[in-house]
TrEMBL record:
Record-listed a divalent metal cation 2 binding positions: H161, H187
GO terms of biological process kind: apoptotic DNA fragmentation; cellular response to oxidative stress
A molecular function GO annotation: 3'-5'-DNA exonuclease activity
Annotated binding of a divalent metal cation 1, by residue: E124, D235
Highest taxon of source: Eukaryota
The protein, known as: TatD protein
Family: Belongs to the metallo-dependent hydrolases superfamily. TatD-type hydrolase family.
Keyword Nuclease on entry: yes
GO terms for cellular component: cytosol
Length: 311
Protein backbone atom coordinates (compact mmCIF):
# COMPACT_ATOMS: atom_id res chain seq x y z
CA UNK A 1 0.00 0.00 0.00
CA UNK A 2 2.85 2.40 0.83
CA UNK A 3 4.37 1.81 -2.61
CA UNK A 4 1.04 2.53 -4.31
CA UNK A 5 0.62 5.76 -2.33
CA UNK A 6 4.16 6.83 -3.23
CA UNK A 7 3.51 6.17 -6.92
CA UNK A 8 0.33 8.26 -6.79
CA UNK A 9 2.17 11.10 -5.07
CA UNK A 10 4.79 11.14 -7.81
CA UNK A 11 2.04 11.72 -10.37
CA UNK A 12 0.71 14.80 -8.55
CA UNK A 13 1.65 18.26 -9.79
CA UNK A 14 1.74 21.36 -7.63
CA UNK A 15 2.56 25.05 -8.05
CA UNK A 16 3.59 26.67 -4.76
CA UNK A 17 2.56 30.25 -5.47
CA UNK A 18 4.21 31.63 -2.31
CA UNK A 19 7.86 30.81 -1.61
CA UNK A 20 9.95 33.47 0.18
CA UNK A 21 13.14 31.97 -1.21
CA UNK A 22 15.25 35.09 -0.57
CA UNK A 23 14.91 34.62 3.19
CA UNK A 24 18.36 33.91 4.71
CA UNK A 25 17.04 30.89 6.65
CA UNK A 26 17.11 28.92 3.41
CA UNK A 27 20.87 29.48 3.37
CA UNK A 28 21.33 28.51 7.01
CA UNK A 29 21.28 32.06 8.48
CA UNK A 30 18.99 32.89 11.42
CA UNK A 31 19.09 36.39 12.93
CA UNK A 32 22.27 37.09 10.94
CA UNK A 33 24.12 34.08 12.36
CA UNK A 34 24.88 30.97 10.32
CA UNK A 35 23.51 27.96 12.20
CA UNK A 36 24.01 25.32 9.51
CA UNK A 37 25.26 24.87 5.96
CA UNK A 38 23.42 26.25 2.95
CA UNK A 39 20.84 23.57 2.07
CA UNK A 40 18.94 25.42 -0.66
CA UNK A 41 19.54 22.68 -3.25
CA UNK A 42 18.17 20.06 -0.86
CA UNK A 43 15.05 22.19 -0.32
CA UNK A 44 14.50 22.33 -4.08
CA UNK A 45 15.10 18.58 -4.39
CA UNK A 46 12.54 17.80 -1.66
CA UNK A 47 9.97 20.00 -3.39
CA UNK A 48 10.45 18.33 -6.75
CA UNK A 49 10.24 14.86 -5.17
CA UNK A 50 6.76 15.81 -3.89
CA UNK A 51 5.49 16.98 -7.26
CA UNK A 52 6.04 20.69 -6.63
CA UNK A 53 7.06 21.40 -10.20
CA UNK A 54 6.72 25.19 -10.02
CA UNK A 55 7.45 27.66 -7.23
CA UNK A 56 6.80 31.40 -7.36
CA UNK A 57 9.36 33.39 -5.36
CA UNK A 58 7.87 36.36 -3.55
CA UNK A 59 9.27 39.86 -4.00
CA UNK A 60 8.34 42.35 -1.28
CA UNK A 61 10.57 45.37 -2.05
CA UNK A 62 13.01 46.40 -4.78
CA UNK A 63 16.01 44.63 -3.24
CA UNK A 64 14.19 41.34 -2.61
CA UNK A 65 12.39 41.51 -5.95
CA UNK A 66 15.76 41.85 -7.68
CA UNK A 67 17.05 38.83 -5.79
CA UNK A 68 13.84 36.90 -6.53
CA UNK A 69 14.25 37.56 -10.25
CA UNK A 70 17.90 36.51 -10.09
CA UNK A 71 16.91 33.19 -8.50
CA UNK A 72 14.05 32.70 -10.95
CA UNK A 73 16.48 33.07 -13.83
CA UNK A 74 18.66 30.32 -12.38
CA UNK A 75 16.11 27.50 -11.98
CA UNK A 76 13.53 26.23 -14.46
CA UNK A 77 11.12 25.47 -11.62
CA UNK A 78 11.04 29.08 -10.43
CA UNK A 79 9.01 32.13 -11.37
CA UNK A 80 8.77 35.28 -9.25
CA UNK A 81 6.72 38.30 -8.27
CA UNK A 82 7.94 41.89 -8.25
CA UNK A 83 6.40 44.46 -5.94
CA UNK A 84 6.37 46.13 -2.51
CA UNK A 85 4.59 44.60 0.49
CA UNK A 86 2.27 47.00 2.38
CA UNK A 87 4.41 46.65 5.51
CA UNK A 88 7.32 47.99 3.46
CA UNK A 89 5.41 50.83 1.83
CA UNK A 90 7.67 53.38 3.53
CA UNK A 91 10.43 52.20 1.14
CA UNK A 92 8.95 54.62 -1.38
CA UNK A 93 9.28 57.61 0.95
CA UNK A 94 12.69 56.55 2.29
CA UNK A 95 14.23 56.16 -1.15
CA UNK A 96 16.94 58.87 -1.44
CA UNK A 97 15.83 59.68 -5.01
CA UNK A 98 12.15 59.80 -4.04
CA UNK A 99 9.03 57.66 -4.58
CA UNK A 100 8.95 58.13 -8.37
CA UNK A 101 12.44 56.71 -8.70
CA UNK A 102 11.43 53.70 -6.58
CA UNK A 103 8.50 53.07 -8.93
CA UNK A 104 10.85 53.36 -11.91
CA UNK A 105 13.12 50.75 -10.34
CA UNK A 106 10.14 48.41 -9.97
CA UNK A 107 9.13 49.00 -13.57
CA UNK A 108 12.65 48.27 -14.81
CA UNK A 109 12.68 44.98 -12.90
CA UNK A 110 9.31 43.97 -14.33
CA UNK A 111 10.46 44.71 -17.87
CA UNK A 112 13.62 42.68 -17.27
CA UNK A 113 11.55 39.80 -15.89
CA UNK A 114 9.11 39.89 -18.77
CA UNK A 115 11.99 39.55 -21.23
CA UNK A 116 13.12 36.32 -19.61
CA UNK A 117 9.56 35.15 -18.95
CA UNK A 118 10.30 34.71 -15.25
CA UNK A 119 8.07 37.34 -13.66
CA UNK A 120 4.63 35.75 -13.28
CA UNK A 121 2.77 38.32 -11.17
CA UNK A 122 2.96 41.81 -9.69
CA UNK A 123 3.28 41.86 -5.91
CA UNK A 124 3.27 41.08 -3.10
CA UNK A 125 1.29 44.25 -2.46
CA UNK A 126 -1.97 45.45 -0.93
CA UNK A 127 -3.03 46.61 2.54
CA UNK A 128 -2.23 45.36 6.06
CA UNK A 129 -4.00 47.16 8.89
CA UNK A 130 -2.87 44.59 11.47
CA UNK A 131 0.68 45.97 11.31
CA UNK A 132 0.32 49.71 10.99
CA UNK A 133 3.50 50.21 13.05
CA UNK A 134 5.42 49.36 9.85
CA UNK A 135 3.53 51.78 7.59
CA UNK A 136 0.50 54.02 8.29
CA UNK A 137 -2.75 53.27 6.44
CA UNK A 138 -2.54 56.38 4.26
CA UNK A 139 0.98 55.49 3.11
CA UNK A 140 -0.13 51.93 2.35
CA UNK A 141 -3.14 53.14 0.36
CA UNK A 142 -1.09 55.62 -1.63
CA UNK A 143 1.44 53.07 -2.81
CA UNK A 144 -1.08 50.28 -3.24
CA UNK A 145 -2.74 52.50 -5.83
CA UNK A 146 0.53 53.60 -7.45
CA UNK A 147 1.58 49.98 -7.83
CA UNK A 148 -1.82 49.05 -9.28
CA UNK A 149 -1.27 51.67 -11.97
CA UNK A 150 2.06 50.04 -12.79
CA UNK A 151 0.52 46.55 -12.80
CA UNK A 152 -2.05 47.71 -15.34
CA UNK A 153 0.70 49.24 -17.47
CA UNK A 154 2.68 45.99 -17.31
CA UNK A 155 -0.44 43.79 -17.71
CA UNK A 156 0.54 41.33 -15.02
CA UNK A 157 -1.79 39.33 -12.75
CA UNK A 158 -1.82 40.54 -9.15
CA UNK A 159 -0.31 38.85 -6.10
CA UNK A 160 -2.28 40.56 -3.36
CA UNK A 161 -2.08 40.94 0.41
CA UNK A 162 -5.08 41.95 2.54
CA UNK A 163 -5.24 41.91 6.35
CA UNK A 164 -8.09 43.55 8.26
CA UNK A 165 -8.49 46.08 5.45
CA UNK A 166 -11.20 44.65 3.20
CA UNK A 167 -13.23 47.85 2.76
CA UNK A 168 -10.33 50.04 1.59
CA UNK A 169 -8.70 47.10 -0.21
CA UNK A 170 -11.66 46.47 -2.52
CA UNK A 171 -12.55 50.16 -2.95
CA UNK A 172 -9.08 50.82 -4.38
CA UNK A 173 -8.80 47.55 -6.29
CA UNK A 174 -12.14 47.95 -8.07
CA UNK A 175 -10.84 50.97 -9.97
CA UNK A 176 -8.16 48.89 -11.71
CA UNK A 177 -9.47 45.32 -12.05
CA UNK A 178 -11.47 46.07 -15.23
CA UNK A 179 -8.15 46.79 -16.97
CA UNK A 180 -6.51 43.57 -15.74
CA UNK A 181 -7.95 40.62 -17.71
CA UNK A 182 -6.21 37.97 -15.57
CA UNK A 183 -7.11 39.68 -12.25
CA UNK A 184 -4.97 37.89 -9.64
CA UNK A 185 -4.88 36.08 -6.30
CA UNK A 186 -5.31 37.21 -2.70
CA UNK A 187 -2.56 35.15 -1.16
CA UNK A 188 -2.31 33.61 2.32
CA UNK A 189 -6.01 34.19 2.84
CA UNK A 190 -7.21 34.36 6.46
CA UNK A 191 -10.33 36.51 6.06
CA UNK A 192 -14.00 35.88 6.70
CA UNK A 193 -16.35 33.94 4.47
CA UNK A 194 -17.85 37.26 3.33
CA UNK A 195 -14.40 38.56 2.36
CA UNK A 196 -13.69 35.31 0.52
CA UNK A 197 -16.91 35.76 -1.42
CA UNK A 198 -15.86 39.31 -2.31
CA UNK A 199 -12.67 37.90 -3.78
CA UNK A 200 -14.61 35.38 -5.86
CA UNK A 201 -17.14 38.02 -6.94
CA UNK A 202 -14.21 40.10 -8.20
CA UNK A 203 -12.93 37.07 -10.15
CA UNK A 204 -9.88 36.75 -7.92
CA UNK A 205 -8.29 33.49 -6.85
CA UNK A 206 -7.85 32.71 -3.15
CA UNK A 207 -4.46 31.43 -1.93
CA UNK A 208 -4.55 28.81 0.83
CA UNK A 209 -1.68 27.80 3.13
CA UNK A 210 -1.21 26.67 6.73
CA UNK A 211 -2.20 30.09 8.08
CA UNK A 212 -5.52 29.69 6.25
CA UNK A 213 -6.24 26.64 8.43
CA UNK A 214 -5.56 27.90 11.96
CA UNK A 215 -9.10 28.03 13.36
CA UNK A 216 -12.40 26.20 12.83
CA UNK A 217 -13.68 29.41 11.21
CA UNK A 218 -10.72 29.35 8.77
CA UNK A 219 -11.50 25.74 7.91
CA UNK A 220 -15.14 26.63 7.17
CA UNK A 221 -13.96 29.38 4.80
CA UNK A 222 -11.58 27.04 2.98
CA UNK A 223 -14.37 24.48 2.60
CA UNK A 224 -16.52 27.18 0.97
CA UNK A 225 -13.92 28.40 -1.55
CA UNK A 226 -14.98 27.27 -5.04
CA UNK A 227 -12.39 24.79 -6.31
CA UNK A 228 -12.00 26.72 -9.56
CA UNK A 229 -10.98 29.85 -7.60
CA UNK A 230 -8.41 28.27 -5.27
CA UNK A 231 -4.61 28.20 -5.40
CA UNK A 232 -2.17 26.52 -2.98
CA UNK A 233 0.98 27.84 -1.35
CA UNK A 234 3.28 27.39 1.62
CA UNK A 235 4.42 31.01 2.19
CA UNK A 236 7.62 29.26 3.31
CA UNK A 237 9.47 29.67 5.62
CA UNK A 238 6.26 30.64 7.48
CA UNK A 239 2.68 29.36 7.63
CA UNK A 240 3.22 25.63 8.17
CA UNK A 241 0.26 23.58 9.43
CA UNK A 242 1.08 23.20 13.10
CA UNK A 243 -0.39 20.59 15.46
CA UNK A 244 -2.29 23.41 17.20
CA UNK A 245 -4.07 24.38 13.96
CA UNK A 246 -7.62 23.21 13.30
CA UNK A 247 -6.49 22.07 9.85
CA UNK A 248 -4.01 19.61 11.35
CA UNK A 249 -6.87 17.23 12.15
CA UNK A 250 -7.40 16.73 8.41
CA UNK A 251 -3.93 15.36 7.72
CA UNK A 252 -3.78 11.63 7.09
CA UNK A 253 -0.03 11.36 7.24
CA UNK A 254 2.97 13.13 8.67
CA UNK A 255 5.76 14.66 6.65
CA UNK A 256 7.89 11.87 5.17
CA UNK A 257 11.09 13.85 5.68
CA UNK A 258 12.96 13.74 8.95
CA UNK A 259 13.22 17.01 10.86
CA UNK A 260 15.96 18.35 13.10
CA UNK A 261 16.61 21.51 15.07
CA UNK A 262 18.78 24.04 13.27
CA UNK A 263 21.44 23.69 15.97
CA UNK A 264 21.63 19.95 15.24
CA UNK A 265 21.33 20.11 11.49
CA UNK A 266 21.79 16.89 9.55
CA UNK A 267 22.03 16.61 5.78
CA UNK A 268 18.72 15.56 4.25
CA UNK A 269 16.63 16.84 7.17
CA UNK A 270 14.01 19.53 7.14
CA UNK A 271 14.70 22.17 9.77
CA UNK A 272 12.06 22.15 12.47
CA UNK A 273 9.87 25.26 12.31
CA UNK A 274 11.10 26.27 8.83
CA UNK A 275 8.39 25.64 6.27
CA UNK A 276 9.36 24.49 2.77
CA UNK A 277 7.69 24.22 -0.67
CA UNK A 278 7.56 20.41 -0.36
CA UNK A 279 4.76 20.98 2.17
CA UNK A 280 2.46 22.16 -0.62
CA UNK A 281 1.33 18.53 -0.75
CA UNK A 282 0.53 18.69 2.98
CA UNK A 283 -1.70 21.72 2.43
CA UNK A 284 -3.33 19.92 -0.51
CA UNK A 285 -3.94 16.84 1.62
CA UNK A 286 -5.71 18.89 4.31
CA UNK A 287 -7.81 20.84 1.79
CA UNK A 288 -8.85 17.69 -0.07
CA UNK A 289 -10.01 16.13 3.21
CA UNK A 290 -11.88 19.31 4.20
CA UNK A 291 -13.64 19.40 0.84
CA UNK A 292 -14.28 15.66 0.81
CA UNK A 293 -12.63 15.03 -2.56
CA UNK A 294 -9.73 12.92 -3.76
CA UNK A 295 -6.26 14.44 -3.48
CA UNK A 296 -5.67 13.69 -7.17
CA UNK A 297 -8.83 15.58 -8.20
CA UNK A 298 -7.84 18.57 -6.08
CA UNK A 299 -4.25 18.60 -7.35
CA UNK A 300 -5.30 18.43 -11.00
CA UNK A 301 -7.75 21.33 -10.66
CA UNK A 302 -5.39 23.53 -8.63
CA UNK A 303 -2.59 22.92 -11.16
CA UNK A 304 -4.96 23.97 -13.94
CA UNK A 305 -5.91 27.12 -12.01
CA UNK A 306 -2.26 27.96 -11.35
CA UNK A 307 -1.19 27.64 -14.97
CA UNK A 308 -4.26 29.58 -16.12
CA UNK A 309 -3.30 32.54 -13.93
CA UNK A 310 0.49 32.42 -13.93
CA UNK A 311 1.39 30.68 -17.17
Amino acid sequence: MAQVKQAIQKSLRFYDIGFNATDPVFRGFYHEKQRHVDDFDAILSRALSKGVQKMMITGDNVVNSREALKLANQHDSFTCTIGVHPCQAECFNKNPQGPEDYLHQLEALVLEGKKTGRVAAFGEFGLDYDRLHYAPAEVQKTYFEEQLKLAVKMQLPLFLHSRNAAKDFFEILEKYLPNLPKKGVVHSFTGTIEEMQQCVDHDLYVGVNGCSLKTPENVAVVKAIPLDKMLLETDAPWCEIRPSHAGHAFLDSKNVFDTCKKERFKEGCMVKGRNEPCNTVVVAEAVAKIKGIDLEELADKIWENSISLLG
